[in-house]
């Protein structure tokens, strides 16, 4: 998800109880966080954090493009799964014949494995969104970043019944060269976004729809949320956005790998 200055109490309570990790926020811009040159050594993971299955490495550059080409768009949904909102998101996607990429927080996946399995069964893709959604993780050690990425990968894979995440989206765009390299070495393409729907701020369904329409020229990857609070506005907005995209000649696909 994008970096937001407030509204983090949901994660603070969840992670404070589960891991004792303080969720931090920063005002740095998304694009400066996503910028940077891939390079440097790949961080070493601890044995406990490293999933056992081998993975085919992918490119470490941040993906934005759609596998559907120039008229393709990618629906990406962050921060879940959530027992109230994820099923509603799945219903809207099914009704519109759309596949999406769900960027899951490790602790949420671990808490709701049934929902992770439902996402996979419906043909959607999984994305690693870290263990604790620390939007300042790019300011912390490589060992900490490795733990956040690899433990979340393990949690999501176990919750799904063995289906690995295909992407890694840093919380708030807090990528670093080493975190991108590590994710790519695990077969998870770093995933950016072009259109932040601002749904996390709960501005109303009309505003969410307007933001997407206005910003779609920025690129094909759209950012929404299915957790972290009341997501009824997002559900309502998606019911309007998905048919509109089709009317405009767009096809929903997946981010390139």
Helix content: 25-40%
State the low-pLDDT regions, or none.
4-52
**Rough outline:** globular
* Separation of the first and last Cα atoms: 19 Å
Characterization of this structure:
The protein is an alpha/beta fold. It is 37% helix and 11% strand. It has nine helices and eight strands. It has helices at residues 9-18, 30-34, 85-95, 106-111, 113-121, 142-160, 177-185, 205-215, 232-247; strands spanning 72-78, 101-104, 125-128, 167-168, 189-190, 195-196, 221-225, 251-253. Strands 1, 2, 3, 4, 5, 6, 7 and 8 form an eight-stranded parallel beta sheet that branches. Helix 6 links the parallel strand 3 (125-128) and strand 4 (167-168). Helix 8 (205-215) packs parallel to helix 9.
Summary of the model, kept short:
With 257 residues, the protein is α/β, with parallel strands linked by helices. Helix content is 37%, strand content 11%.
What would the keywords be for this entry?
257 residues, alpha/beta, eight-stranded parallel sheet, 9 helices, 8 strands
Give the topology.
Layout: H1 9-18, H2 30-34, E1 72-78, H3 85-95, E2 101-104, H4 106-111, H5 113-121, E3 125-128, H6 142-160, E4 167-168, H7 177-185, E5 189-190, E6 195-196, H8 205-215, E7 221-225, H9 232-247, E8 251-253
Parallel strand pairs: 1-2, 1-7, 1-8, 2-3, 3-4, 4-5, 6-7
């Amino acid at each position: 998800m994008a970096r937001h200055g407030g509204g983090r109490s949901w994660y603070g309570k969840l992670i404070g109880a589960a891991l004792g990790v303080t969720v931090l926020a920063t005002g740095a811009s998304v694009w400066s966080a996503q910028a940077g040159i891939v390079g440097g050594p790949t961080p070493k993971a601890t044995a406990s954090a490293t999933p056992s299955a081998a993975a085919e490495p992918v490119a470490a550059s941040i993906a934005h493009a759609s596998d559907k080409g120039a008229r393709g768009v990618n629906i990406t949904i962050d921060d879940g799964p959530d027992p109230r909102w994820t099923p509603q998101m799945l219903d809207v996607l099914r009704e519109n014949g759309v596949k999406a990429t769900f960027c899951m927080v490790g602790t949420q996946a671990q808490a709701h494995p049934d929902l992770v399995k439902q996402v996979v069964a419906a043909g959607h893709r999984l994305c690693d969104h870290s263990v604790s959604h620390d939007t300042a993780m790019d300011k912390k050690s490589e060992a900490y970043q490795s733990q956040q990425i690899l433990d979340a990968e393990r949690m999501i894979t176990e919750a799904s019944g063995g289906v690995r995440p295909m992407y890694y989206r840093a919380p708030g765009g807090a990528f670093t060269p080493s975190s991108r390299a590590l994710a790519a070495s695990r077969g998870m393409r770093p995933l950016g976004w072009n259109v932040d729907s601002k749904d996390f701020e709960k501005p109303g369904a009309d505003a969410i729809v307007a933001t997407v329409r206005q910003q779609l020229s920025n690129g094909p990857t759209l950012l929404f949320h299915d957790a972290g609070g009341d997501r009824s506005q997002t559900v309502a907005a998606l019911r309007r956005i998905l048919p509109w995209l089709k009317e405009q000649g767009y096809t929903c696909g997946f981010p390139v790998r």
